[in-house]
Amino acid sequence: VQLQAYGGGLVQAGGSLRLSCTASGRTFTMAWFRQAPGKERDVVATISRSGVTTWYADSVKGRFTISRDNAKNTVYLQMNSLKPEDTAVYYCAARNAVGGDDLSRRYEYDYWGQGTQVTVSS
User: Fold this and answer.
1) What is the C-alpha separation between 60 and 50, in angstroms, rounded?
2) Residues 1-21: tens digit of each pLDDT
């Protein structure tokens, strides 16, 4: 399965962006991670295959929304009220099976997209 992420760009603080990630095949839990320069790649949000169960990092709660459309094999990340500290390369990730012990960990994911740059100017 290949993942293709897109939708990044340059936006002013307070603005919005929507990221999309399309998979070439069936996936289970999907997630968005981000990596700022000189920092670790951290989880931002996760979503179960059904879309019923979602999880967000504290830093984005109330501002970001993860969703998915299984008919299109696509996961979205709607990002509102963006802050300069949201600047990072955003990666989508997917599992190829149900379960997982800690879905905030990179090792839980089998497939990764190529990353899309999000830059928020102050």
Assistant:
1) 22
2) 999 999 999 999 999 999 999
